[in-house]
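2024-03-11 09:14:02 DEBUG pipeline.ingest accepted 1 chain
2024-03-11 09:14:02 DEBUG pipeline.ingest length=124
2024-03-11 09:14:03 DEBUG pipeline.predict start
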Amino acid sequence: MKTFTIDEANAALAIVVPKLEEIRKLYSYLGEMRDDARSAAAVSHLGGGMVGGTPCVNTLYKVGKLTTKIGEMGVELKDYTRGLIDFPCLRNGRTVYLCWQIGDGDEIEWWHETDAGFAGRERV
């Protein structure tokens, strides 16, 4: 597992944040197609499809690529709707998470234990 210093995590935000914003936008688009996708799934045994099926599949592919790129950096995507991410970090010899979400500002100000989650955030 890759670990980050706070400086490395802050530097990575410049790369990760545009990807998070794009993922949120793509999921919003997918949400608009949810009813059509459910209808298509209900009749899939008839070999159907859906209007806008190709754009839907392409959007899912884009989300997958962006999510993979974030993961390959060592960053953990926790909630795509909030743009919530964690950066593994060593603190006093143990792994914790530096925590950031869209709207938190330009730098990471929070951390939490690996089992505490967002609710356990504390100031850096």
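2024-03-11 09:14:41 DEBUG pipeline.report The longest helix spans residues 6-32.
2024-03-11 09:14:41 DEBUG pipeline.predict end
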